[in-house]
Amino acid sequence: MTKLIIILLSAVFINNYVLAKFLGICPFLGVSKQLRSAVGMSLAVIFVMLMATAATWPIQKYLLDPHDLGYLQTIVFILVIAALVQLVEIVLKRYMPSLHESLGVYLPLITTNCAVLGVTILNIDEGYTFAEAMVNSLGSGLGFMLAMVMFSGVRSTMEGSDIPESFKGLPITLVAAAITSLSFMGFGGVIENLFS
Fold this sequence. Notes:
It contains nine helices and no strands. Helices cover 71% and strands 0% of the residues.
């Protein structure tokens, strides 16, 4: 149980896929302008990460590994993720049309979100059991949400600020993302020391 808590907290704070591993930067920069769309995108990513892990872990362990088909891992995982994203898009379009519209092009981009693919592959590479892989995926999704919500707040603050002309737009956004990323470096070692 302690190991699962460590995996969860590490995925959220220390090994944050956006702020520490720099995966999933496209939606992080593109959808974080408004809190509502940042939360909606994050919930969709959490769902896809959990479902992708639930589908890809057994495929890897019971299909690809026993038949020496590990070289197909990336292709198979991308196909599974693409199918899950289509499912999410259909559900959002049907039941939450305003959120579907606000996410726009970024919703189909979950298919190519390297954070989702990264979680599924790293769950296998780390040798996690199914339960550990699911907890890591949940933590990674919550870490993605934390980064999105935090950065949404940072960006809303920046909109009301007097920014020099040369930094307006993407430059100040990248500087703010870098500073936000640096803030997570302070969590390194804290989680492991907490449970040792």
